[in-house]
Recover the amino acids of this structure.
């Protein structure tokens, strides 16, 4: 029986694919945690874990009270 990845990893991988294909281009704001949890039919905590992992790895940046954004590697502050 193949090993199934935890849902937060599946969400992380899907978000990475959407970034790679330009659905979420560099500098773009991701949908809210609430909207993502509805899209993936899971809890806010599961989505938050996927986002937090990507933030820790420098793929996303969180701006409190504003949202979560795809890192723009070409931005001057990077």
């Amino acid at each position: 029986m193949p090993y199934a990845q935890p849902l937060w990893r599946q969400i992380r991988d899907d978000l990475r694919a959407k970034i790679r294909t330009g659905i979420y281009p560099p500098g773009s704001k991701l949908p809210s945690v609430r909207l993502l949890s509805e899209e993936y039919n899971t809890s806010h905590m599961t989505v938050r874990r996927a986002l937090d992992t990507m933030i820790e790895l420098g793929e996303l940046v969180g701006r409190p009270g504003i949202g979560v954004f795809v890192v723009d590697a070409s931005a001057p502050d990077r």
Summary: The domain at 7-70 is CATH 1.10.10.10 (Arc Repressor Mutant, subunit A).
